[in-house]
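Re-run with default settings, no changes from the original entry. Doing this only to confirm the output is reproducible before filing.
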Amino acid sequence: MKTNEFKKILKPLIEKTIREVLLEEGVLSRVVAEVAKGFQTTLVESKAPKTSAELQKEAEEQAIGKREKIKRLNESAGLGDVFSQAQTIPEKNSNGPLTGVNPHDSGVDITNIQKLASGKWKQLMGNK
């Protein structure tokens, strides 16, 4: 008997046997139920909330780390200490638009914006 003839005989028998086992004996439904049960369980991890002192300490450590990285980067680029004259912004608990901005900050000089537009304000606004 050749292999092709043997496959033609065996394949339908194997398919029928697998169907019977999976459907009639309930194997497939048990597998699906187990998988569904696995999806239903949730993993919950509880952590104690950090105190404000711990949060502040972490923020300070991150700020120091950032300053050190910037300092090393500037030194490697030959720029020196670019931020030596920088002042820290005072922290306030208000929610205003300028919260955290140094009151002595002069801001950005916008006097040259008109020169940029060359008197074409109406065109830029959509009015012709």
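The mean pLDDT is 78. Helices lie at 3-24, 27-40, 52-77, 113-117, 121-125.
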